[in-house]
Amino acid sequence: xxxxxxxxxxxxxxxxxxxxxxxxxxxxxxxxxxxxxxxxxxxxxxxxxxxxxxxxxxxxxxxxxxxxxxxxxxxxxxxxxxxxxxxxxxxxxxxxxxxxxxxxxxxxxxxxxxxxxxxxxxxxxxxxxxxxxxxxxxxxxxxxxxxxxxxxxxxxxxxxxxxxxxxxxxxxxxxxxxxxxxxxxxxxxxxxxxxxxxxxxxxxxxxxxxxxxxxxxxxxxxxxxxxxxxxxxxxxxxxxxxxxxxxxxxxxxxxxxxxxxxxxx
Length: 265
Prior knowledge:
- Keywords: Membrane, Transmembrane, Transmembrane helix.
- There is one protein chain.
- By secondary structure, the protein is an all-alpha fold.
- Helices cover about 70% and strands about 0% of the residues.
- The chain contains 13 helices and no strands.
- The longest helix is centred in the first third of the chain and has 33 residues, at about 55-85.
- The chain is globular.
């Protein structure tokens, strides 16, 4: 094999490694439950409110987004990368033909695929439970893609200062809290405007707003009824899309600068 061929990104190698990581994930029953079952449970919230309610639907689907992003993607990628690094698996693989980008992609792919599948499955499930079809399906899916890319990058960044898989339970908390509490604070009507505006700049709040706009056509955090059509949703989504793109760029930059392939001393 020529040097040029060996240096080229290989989709075949990446998918082969990703399948191996997926097998390891499915063998861990607890990790599998967190990756597949937990993200779908928030859909049960659709059974508690008024059937077809936009606000209940937006709350449930936003929670699905958050759980699918934080567990199958963020925490799973973080734990897997730290485990492989501490076992020197990554170091050994880098001495062969496998490129760094292939290792990164293969570790992220199982969780990313799970989260995106959940985002897609949520559509027919929610419709069966009384919700309308998304007003702008491409926008909804774009939010899902940005979410998994951003949280994958944050996982690799967090791994840089995580000493072991056990300590990941602590080092993951800052990102989990930022993502989880953003939608809560941004929707609190009694919060001072300055704090509410700051909360809207968090990735979790932007994710939730993309769900509200892309799926339900809700114009603003206080909206309770669909007022946006397909064309209107694009202009309404400029703000949250910009926030998500900015956070994704920051996450990717941090991950690239801090990537560690050997155990921390």
